[in-house]
From TrEMBL:
One of its GO terms (molecular function) is phosphotransferase activity, for other substituted phosphate groups. Pathway: Cell wall biogenesis. It is a single-pass type II membrane protein. This is Polyisoprenyl-teichoic acid--peptidoglycan teichoic acid transferase TagU. The gene is tagU. It is found in: Cell membrane. Its main location: membrane. It holds the Pfam family LytR_cpsA_psr. Residues 33-307 are extracellular. It is an enzyme of class 2 (transferase). Coiled coil: none annotated. Residues 1-11 are cytoplasmic.
Amino acid sequence: MARREKKSKKKKWPWVLGILALIVIGVGVYLFTVYTSFTNTLEEMHEPIEREVSEKRATDQKVTLSEQDPFSVLLLGVDEREDDRGRSDTVVVMTVNPADKSTKMVSIPRDTYTEIVGRGTTDKINHAYAFGGIEMSMATVENLLDIPIDYVMQVNMEGFQDIVDAVGGVEVNNTLAFDGFQKGTIQLDGHDALGYVRMRKQDPEGDFGRQNRQKQVIQGIMKKGASVNSLLNYKQIFTALGDNVRTNMTFDEMMDVQSNYRDAIGTVDQLMVEDGVGETINGIWYYMMDDAELAEIQSTLKTHLNM
């Protein structure tokens, strides 16, 4: 009797090991599939630009992410149109410093009156994209903030809602009730998130209120995108990113950011643009940034980039 029990136990072990092996193989295949899809998505998102380094950096000062150099990125939310490239209605600059474990973020009002570099005119900053695309936008923002822009990320705002839906929606703290959005902590799906970040006319703070809503949604996407649940829903997330995001950051550079800058990206400090005034020129309303406030923002970003 005892011999039979021992034999029975011995027979069970191969089955247990076989099941474990199948689980390991299954997980390996899943992770390989995720990695392959991720690689393909990043390659689809990659769109190189002509310049190799910003004119505000010396040739030998090119950012090396593998060495954890601080870097800057310009985020452009673009409303694409059938007959032209559209305008960048969202203009956000982020500087990332891994040593400080922090990220600075400034949302530039789209009506900001500034020099459009490469065109020889002064106009609303969001017109730079309409006139000359990504590179003219980068040059114009660099000139305004007096810092190098190392990377750029363009997001199609119509597809922005697909990205929010792909991560399962976001949670925000709404400080102003409007258009069916209740005050307080609310959950937003993609359609609602797009309306949430676009509204400004009903907000007493105008573009400044919208800046805060943009920051909340961006942080919400970053938080949800880093969760385990997002790994399980990778196909929808990768499809949304591949269809709607373009960047000059390469696959290897994105891997370096994931490895070396994770702690810095988790802490976002917003620099507010709020002391300027509105001015009408030839019947068109512009936002005039306050010189002292602009100088302070420039200094803060330069320090954060170790310049």
